[in-house]
Design a protein that fits this description.
Oligomer: single chain
Strand content: 5-15%
Order of helices and strands: EHEEEHHHHHHHHH
Shape: globular
Mean pLDDT: 94
Largest sheet: 4 strands, mixed
CATH architecture of the largest domain: Up-down Bundle
Number of strands: 4
Structural class: alpha+beta
């Protein structure tokens, strides 16, 4: 039995972490039974979510989890794709995780209103001074990471433009097809949908969200993936995406 350690529902979404969403969809694509358990990043072998425990075998990081389930259970989430398409899918995944995700992160953590109703709430159970210290530590760590990857060295307007270029690239590659690599979902759709859902959720307001809302095929794609993989979750989330289109 696979146990998926996750952040849990948040922000009007079935999962607060895009990387947990990616792994959860990969498990669904693979047709594997799993139990989803809320956890803190500190419990993970790598200090981050998601991670899984498969009858005592612990695997952390969404990319290595995918490799593990494909290898261990004899599945290929990209079955039917050519070598070139597999390469394109990997390039898209890297753009989303290592570029668009960091742009999205900036507006969640360094927009005061978004931070106050989102990540700052993680520490609501702590007393006043301890809570303030925890918040300062979190913001400092995120700022360090954003500067290390480069996004944090730009102005907010420049970060919007960088994120918008990635969104436009996704929109152009998707075109009029149903999924990123064609008529059926493959591994890359898990992370593309996961990140778009985080950007499009009405819970947070940001200029990056408005850029995403201006691309109807991406909004329709996010709706399609939500309906396919989380059909029972918060119909109002789908309605909000439809209205944005």
């Amino acid at each position: 039995m696979i146990t998926l350690y996750a952040a849990g529902p948040a922000y009007g979404l079935p999962e607060g972490s895009p990387y947990v969403t990616k792994t959860e969809i990969h498990l669904k694509m693979a047709g594997l039974w799993y139990e989803k358990v809320p956890a803190h990043p500190e419990t993970s072998p790598k200090g981050q979510l998601p991670w899984i425990d498969d009858d005592g075998i612990k695997v952390a990081d969404s990319t290595f989890i995918r490799a593990y389930i494909e290898r261990s259970y004899g599945v290929d989430l990209d079955a039917g794709l050519s070598k070139a398409q597999r390469g394109q899918a990997w390039a898209i995944e890297r753009m989303v995780e290592n570029h668009l995700g960091w742009a999205s992160c900036h507006f969640r953590f360094f927009d005061d209103d978004n931070f106050a109703k989102g990540p700052a709430r993680w520490f609501d159970g702590l007393p006043g001074e301890a809570r303030a210290d925890a918040i300062d530590g979190l913001l400092g760590a995120v700022q360090t990471n954003l500067k290390a990857v480069g996004i944090g060295r730009h102005s907010p307007d420049e970060i919007v433009e960088l994120g918008a270029w990635s969104l436009t690239a996704l929109s152009e590659m998707l075109g009029s097809t149903s999924f990123m690599m064609g008529h059926r979902p493959t591994s890359v759709d898990a992370i593309v949908f996961a990140m778009l859902a985080q950007i499009l959720t009405p819970f947070f307001d940001s200029p990056l969200r408005r850029r995403a809302e201006s691309l109807p095929n991406l909004v329709a794609y996010a709706e399609r993936m939500m309906a396919g993989y989380y059909p029972d979750f918060a119909p109002q989330a789908l309605d909000a995406m439809c209205r944005a289109a």
